[in-house]
Structures are given as C-alpha cells and as structure tokens.
What we know:
It comes from Geodermatophilus arenarius. The chain is mostly helical and about 450 residues long. The chain has helices at about 5-40, 45-65, 70-75, 85-105, 110-115, 120-145, 150-170, 175-210, 220-250, 250-285, 290-320, 325-340, 340-355, 360-420, 430. The protein contains 15 helices and no strands. The longest helix has about 60 residues, at about 360-420. It is globular, with a radius of gyration of 21 Å.
Amino acid sequence: MTATAAPRKRRAMELNAVALMASTVLTGVLGIVFWIVAARLLPASAVGQASSALSAITFLAGLAQLNIVSVLLRFVPQAGRATGGFIARAYGLALGMGLVVTLGFVALGFGSAILGDEWFIPLVFVGATLCYALFLVQDGALTSLGGAVWVPLENLVAGLLRVALLFPLVLLSSRWGALAALVVPTLLAVLVVNTFVFRRLVPRHVATSTGSADVGWSSIKGFVAGDYAASALASCVALLPPVLVSAELGSEAAAYFYVPWYVSVSFGTLVWSIAMAFVVEYANDAAAFRRLIKRSMRLTALVSVAATTVSVAAAPLLLALLGSQYADQGTTLLRIIALSFPFSAGFVIFTALSVARKRLRPLVTALAVKAVVFLAVTAVGLTDFGLEGLALVYLAAEVVTALAVLPIGRRLYRELVASAGRPRQAETEVPARPEAAS
C-alpha cells in the first residue's frame, strides 16, 4: 500500500457515509413534508389508513429483500466478472420472496383489514411490495459499486415526486391518492436506477476489478441465512408497531403515532448509513479496520447525540406542522423515542462488527429476544398503556439490548483488530462454513 492509499480510503468512507446520510436526511425530511401535506389535505382516518398500508408494504418488502443489502456490501467489492450475475440473482431472490410473503399476507386477511375487501387489494399489495423490495436492494447495489453519491439524488427526486403527486392524486381519490403518490415514484426510481446500475456501474466495476472471488450463492449461504434472520427480526421491530397501533387503537391513533415512529426509523437508517460505508471499505481493505471503525464510531456518536437533542427540543414544533392534535398527541411520544437513539446507535455499531466478522449468531439472538419481548408486550398491553406506554417499552428494549451485547461487541472488536494484522483469507473459506453464520 502506498503512502497515499490510507487518506484516499479515509475520504472514500467518509464520502460514502455522508452521501448515504444525506440520502436518509432528504428521505426523512421529504417524508415528513409528505405527511404534513397529507394531514392538511385528508382527515386523520385517511392518513392513518395510508400510513398503516405503507408500514405493512415496507415490512413485507423488508422480509422479501432478505437483507441482500448487507450481502451486496460485503461481497460485491470482490465479485469481479461475476458482479452483474450476482446482483441480478440478488434481485431475483428479492422478487421471488416478495411474491411469497405478500401472497401469504393477503391470504391471511391482513390486507383487507387495512385497505378493505375490494378484489384488487391483493394486486395493490403484491405490486407495491415487489417495487419497494427492489427499491431497498438497489441502494446496496449502488453503494457496493462505488455509486453511493447517486443515492441522495435518487431519494431527492423520488421524495419530491411523492409530494408533487400527492395534490392531484388526492383530488382524484381521497382514499387511494396518498398511497398511489408513495408507490408511483418508487416504481420510476427502480426503473431508472437499475438501468444505470446494469448499463454503467456494473461494466465499470468489472473493468476495474483486479480479481474475482468466489461469490456464488452456494458458497455464502451461511452468511445470507444469518443476515436475513437478523434483517427480518429488525424489520419486525421497526415496521410492525404502526400496524399494531392501527389494529388495536384505530386509524386515527395510527396517524398520531406514525410521524414520531417515522423519525425513529429514519434515525436508524441514518446511523446504518455510516455502518454501510464502513462495511464497504472494510471489504476492500481489512487491514485498515482499526482506523475505519474508530472514525465510524466517532461519526455515529456525533449523529446520535445531535439527533436526540434536536428531536427532544423540536418535537412540538415539528408535530405542530401537521396540526395541533398531532402535537398534543405526539410530543411526549417523540421525546421518549428520541432518548433511545444513542442506544440504537450502539447496537448498529455492534451489527456492523458482526457483519464484518461474519459472526451473526449473537446478533440474531439479541434481535430475536428484543423482537419477541417488545412486540408481545405491545400486542398484549397496548390498549392499556397507550402510545406513550408503547414508547417507554421501546426505550427499555433498546437500552437493555444495547447493554446486553456490549461485551460481545468488545470481543468482536478485538478479534477484528487481531485479524487485520494477518494475511486475508480467501472469501471462499469463511462464508462456506456452516459456523460462519454464528
């Protein structure tokens, strides 16, 4: 490695992290603008129905995409000539899984419980879920191919289109306008971005690659299985609460709950952006682990403290933009949720260490316990303790989980520091072993 390589790598990680965080911020801000406009144009019940449908679709898409984002980040940098086929198979898996989980969802009657009994409801859920599944995966493709700087532009354009389309579509249908305004720009983004990925970025990556590791799906199935389990459990925690609130407390309560919860999910995506940039750079240069993780941890700490401070201070002002009822019902809720941010950030760092080490069993175990306890308590007690009680349960779950994994995270850190000083193993050795998902 030359004397100038380290600064170049350092700038690359930070550039990717800033680009992905900018994307998250743009998505979050435009998402809030969307719901502010929707709240002004529609009654709370219609806003609650649209937000609950979006939560269900996003949850199904999260299950469908098999957490392929992490797989792409971890293995595409070494895929070489196999890059195009590897990404195409990843997309195919996401689409196939999306069809399976969505058909199961509507067959069990959950779709009609949210949107009604019309004959086309299954088609709405299937089409929207497949679209969102690809939308989730394509950011991983862009980032792993060195195109992270395009992610903010993609999300900016999609977010602006959603807000712009909301006005005419709501006029056409107060019931379906908001949901259509969310889905149509997502479909357009999928078509445009993946044309760019396969026609421009994949050929460039293949042309500049110096080698080609074994990234056949059979050789990395252990990692994929463990990573998917972690993703599915995390999606349950992030995306099911709005659906539970709608089912237990009604669509109006779901409307008041959605924006504070949306802020929480957006924060999780924000700090995961830093972890994504770390994983990509580590996959390219494992010897730089100590430098990369220290910079990632400092940036994550800065972002989490800033997000907590701003959310606690600005909660009433933000929610008042939707209306006085939203501020009355959601201010304390948002403030309680914001107190969980530093602990959520700590768990994201633990997740990044687990992915880098390819040791996912402790991560899956921690997420399983958190998901089961949090969602079970919510399902059983929500009607008794209400929205603010739900926020307190979530805060407790985040604190306990972050503290529980701290000793394991320290051990993973020491192992990665030690492995950074040794010659790198071939990619075929680690993922192929069954214990690689542990």
